[in-house]
Amino acid sequence: MTADIIDGKAFAATVRARVAEHVSRLASLDITPGLAVVLVGEDPASQVYVRNKGKQTVEVGMASFEHKLDVNTSEADLLALIERLNADPAVHGILCQLPVPDHIDADKVLAAIDPAKDVDGFHISNVGLLATGQKAMVPCTPLGCLMMLRERHGSLSGMNAVVVGRSNIVGKPMAQLLLRDSATVTIAHSRTRDIEALCRTADILIAAVGRPQMITGDWIKPGATVIDVGINRVPNGEKTRLVGDVDFASAVEVAGAITPVPGGVGPMTIACLLANTVTACCRANG
Ligand code: GUN
């Protein structure tokens, strides 16, 4: 039996439609949610992400403010821009695309963003709010994963979840969200012993390591739900292709449900960013 394919692209379209409805209701109150995206440098993958974010922001009726800065922009200039965006009432969400160039301290930049406008959920105060079960801005990629899991399972209570990867952007907040939904959560990483056996205990397996096709079918418990966060570009003859952290061909034979790459988690991330921006806008306007 092969796994059900979780269609993140279709799900994201329904989330965007809901966001667009909210935006049109706000328009009748003369309010337009605005998202500012800051990109420093010319990393090709980041440029694609930023372009897609801007395009989809406009498509749902929100205002998009793109700030593309030269790779040599100083940390001070970037912080000054963040301060201006913090003070701008037309901007409800601010996202600084990561990674930033080495001469800029990413932690300093994230700390400078007004937590109320921190639609990435990376500011330390949002991280703390999430960890203590309070109302927080939740990071977009884990939020998108959670929505797909809830859609598939309803309640996650008591399920064994293994999150492979311990990044601040995905692994840690993903674990917090699963815990908040009463799953039993383990975070696995490069030093985890017998990681294959641990993964085989998972009813829910989240792959967020950034290693192409690392997780193969024999790591997966039959019937498990597998969420593949990886977006890795690998050679494919003369060209390249995108693959996840999961070896889809072998995993699909064992899992109960699986997200494809592309078309799984990726579209949900941007949809959640738009949703977070509307949330920030609503909070700002009482
Ligand atoms: N780089 C890769 N993923 C993300 C993300 O979700 N937010 C930001 N700001 N940068 C990223």
UniProtKB/TrEMBL annotation:
Organism lineage string: Bacteria, Pseudomonadati, Pseudomonadota, Alphaproteobacteria, Rhodobacterales
Family recorded in the similarity comment: Belongs to the tetrahydrofolate dehydrogenase/cyclohydrolase family.
GO molecular function, one term: methenyltetrahydrofolate cyclohydrolase activity
Family matches, as PROSITE patterns: THF_DHG_CYH_2
InterPro entries: Aminoacid_DH-like_N_sf (IPR046346), NAD(P)-bd_dom_sf (IPR036291), THF_DH/CycHdrlase (IPR000672), THF_DH/CycHdrlase_cat_dom (IPR020630), THF_DH/CycHdrlase_CS (IPR020867), THF_DH/CycHdrlase_NAD-bd_dom (IPR020631)
Keywords carried by this UniProt record: Amino-acid biosynthesis, Histidine biosynthesis, Hydrolase, Methionine biosynthesis, Multifunctional enzyme, NADP, One-carbon metabolism, Oxidoreductase, Purine biosynthesis
Residue stretches making up the Tetrahydrofolate dehydrogenase/cyclohydrolase catalytic domain: 6-120
Residues that hold NADP(+) according to the record: 165-167, 231
Pfam name, any one: THF_DHG_CYH
Protein name (Swiss-Prot/TrEMBL): Bifunctional protein FolD
A biological process term (GO) from this entry: methionine biosynthetic process
Function: Catalyzes the oxidation of 5,10-methylenetetrahydrofolate to 5,10-methenyltetrahydrofolate and then the hydrolysis of 5,10-methenyltetrahydrofolate to 10-formyltetrahydrofolate.
Pathway annotation from the record: One-carbon metabolism; tetrahydrofolate interconversion
Residues covered by the Tetrahydrofolate dehydrogenase/cyclohydrolase NAD(P)-binding domain: 139-283
E.C. number: 1.5.1.5, 3.5.4.9
